[in-house]
Design goal:
Blueprint lengths: L5 H11 L1 E2 L1 H12 L5 E5 L3 H6 L1 E2 L4 E2 L5 H10 L4 E5 L4 H12 L5 E4 L10 E2 L11
Parallel strand pairs: 1-6, 2-4, 2-5, 5-6
Antiparallel strand pairs: 3-7
């Protein structure tokens, strides 16, 4: 069995601030196998999340409430935080905010959920109901 390149993918994502569809598939597999830990954060609105979300999403922190919920991210600043939205536009803006606040281990799904080919869920329970 071939070992997944978890560390290489992680380091590339941190360096470029971007995660491709293929990278996210590999990262989620690494996470499932306890080879890597990170937070997958959806920054879209609740109605968008309920319509469709990426399996394995840890948090839903809509950009419209980011100023109120950024403390949740700050509590997990030492973890790799991977953001996604619909197409990658909103996450680009949030990345800038987080970089200015000193976050170093962050990246975003560059093509958003629309470009993601992995498992998606419809009507998933809100991720805050699970432990992170």
């Amino acid at each position: 069995m071939q070992e997944l390149p978890c560390k290489e993918v992680f380091e590339r994502c941190i360096q470029t601030l971007q995660v491709s569809d293929k990278d996210l598939l590999e990262l989620l597999t690494c996470k499932e196998q306890n080879l890597l830990d990170f937070l997958l954060v959806d920054i879209r609105e609740i109605f968008e999340y309920m319509n469709q979300s990426i399996a394995g999403t840890d948090l839903l922190l809509p950009t419209t409430t980011l100023h109120e919920t950024i403390g949740i991210l700050e509590e997990n600043k030492e973890k790799f935080i991977l953001l996604y939205c619909r197409t990658g536009n909103r996450t680009s803006n949030v990345l800038g905010i987080l970089k200015r606040k000193g976050f170093e281990k962050i990246a975003h799904l560059s093509d958003g959920i629309v470009g993601y080919s992995g498992k998606k869920l419809k009507n998933a329970p809100l991720p805050q109901e699970r432990n992170i």
